[in-house]
Each structure stands twice: as structure tokens, then as C-alpha cells.
Amino acid sequence: MISISRMQAPAISGRTRLFAVLGDPVQQVRAPEMLNPVFAELGLDAVLVPVHAPVAHLGEVVRGLQRAANVDGLLVTVPHKAAVREFAEVHSAAVRLAGGANALRRGPDGRWHAENFDGAGFVAGLVAAGHAPAGKRVTLLGAGGAGGAIAAALVTARVASLDVVDLDADRVGAVLARLAPHAGDRVRAGTPAAVRTSDLVVNATPLGLRATDPLPFDPAELSPGTIVADIIMKPRETRLLRTASALGLPVHHGDGMLSHQLRMYREFFELG
Predict the structure, then answer these.
(1) Which CATH code, of 3.30.1490.190, 1.25.40.10, 2.160.10.10, 3.40.50.10860, is assigned to 17-117+259-268?
(2) Structure-derived torsion over alpha carbons of residues 214, 239, 176, 150, reported in degrees to the nearest 10
(3) Are 140 and 162 in contact (CB under 8 A)?
């Protein structure tokens, strides 16, 4: 894993290559403070900036950036991970399995390539923290872009079972349809009560981005030793993790998902 250093202001020139991270909202993103030091370490004249792309104008924003000749790549966060697939001509196997993308790059031929590192980064973070998911009973709350990617990676990591919970039954159905050929009956549509019998519970919903958000589930319902993971990166200590920790439950922070993707980004964007 690449270490995260204190961000230094990049020197911008007329030759600087541009990368953008798209979200709505975008204030919570941590990718710029993690990747810009990597650019500096590698001696690259490049910078990653946050771009607030409202849902209603996503197409205009993406197409505009793609037409800018010095934009080499895009990172994508909530709620755009499923929608950005239509702006890439080439989809990886991970994108097809997850149903969304979190990175796009311009190829030498001008075509845009979509990739998804969310699931692989999340599982790598769990393993590094001593919470390898293999053989565990898992409940995943949230079947959106990040949730779909995490579900696919957990299946690949050989979890014993995976309950997918979301208020949108169609989104759950889409995740199950993509994973059924690979997981069979190990993956199923779950209910909130599934957390009570889980070894690992993952919050892949946006609940926790704001201090006023309700908890996605009540950690008091969990069995002792159940791992509570949140994919929200800012704030790092979400209300869910604070509550679970106060109950003596092991917790896993969201920033691990991104920090373990840095090597993958380097390879995908051919940064050296």
C-alpha cells in the first residue's frame, strides 16, 4: 500500500495534465489529498481536482471534460458510478460485474476506458486490517454504485453468505442477477434483520455523510465481535462507527478503501 503524505500545493503550468473527481456532493472526497502527493512523488506534472457534477448535468460535465485535450482521467464517486458507464467505450470485467465504474481514462486511440476499483480496494483494506472476509456471513447495506462493486468483490473473496439490503428492490435485484452465475444462493436479498446474525456488516449507503443523518442500522442489535465497516471517508469517524465502537464492536473505517486503491490507480492511469 502506498503511504499517504501531507498534501503539498502542486505547481500548475501550461503543461499540467488534469484529472478530476466527480461527485454530488463533492466536499467529502479525499482522493485529491491522497493522489496529488503521489503525482509529486513521481515527479509528474499532473493535478487532481474535485468537480461538483450535479446529477441533472452529469452528461454535460463529463462530455465537457472529455473534450478538454489535457484531461487524462476521471475518478467518480456518489451518486454517479452507474451512470458514468455510458461515457466510456470500453468496460472492464469488474465494471460489468459491479454495474458501475469509479475511474475512467482516455486511451491512446481516444476511446475512454471504464474500471472499478472500489470492491478490490475495500476487500484489500479489510484483509490488511485483519478482517479477511472469506467464510464470513456478511450484510451489505446499499446496492448502489459502491455497494454493487463491494458485493462483487466479497463474492470473489469467498464469503459464506451475503445479504444485500436496499430500499430500492430493483437495485438489489440487479446486483443479484449479476452475481448469481458466480455465487449461486450465497447472495440473497436481505432485510435489516440480517445484521443480527452477521459476522461483518458494511454500510455502503450515503447515511453518515451529514451529522444529521440517521443510523443505517442499530449497532446495538449486533452480536459481540461483529465487525462494522463504513465506506464513508469524510467524516472518518461517522456516527455509525462511533456508536459501534462505544458498544465494544470492532470497526473498519472508509479511508482504507481508497488508500488501497492508489496502486491500482497508478497502474490504470499508467502513472509509472
Answers:
(1) 3.40.50.10860
(2) 150
(3) yes
Q: Please tell me whether residue 210 adopts helix, strand or coil conformation.
A: coil
**Cβ atoms of 90 and 114 closer than 8 Å:** yes
Specify the CATH superfamily of domain 119-257: NAD(P)-binding Rossmann-like Domain (3.40.50.720)
Where do the structural domains in the chain lie, given as residue ranges?
A: 17-117+259-268, 119-257
Q: What is the pLDDT of residue 8?
A: 54
Q: How far apart are CA 51 and CA 123, in angstroms?
A: 27
160 is written with which cell numbers?
459464506
CA proximity to 114, closest of 55, 74, 164? 74
Q: Which residues are catalytic?
A: 81
DSSP 3-state of 105? strand
- Closest residue by Cα to residue 115 from 264, 272, 270, 271: 264
Cell of 25: 456532493
Mean pLDDT by 10 residues, the chain (272 residues): 48 94 94 92 95 98 98 95 96 94 96 97 97 98 94 96 97 96 94 97 95 96 98 94 98 93 92 79
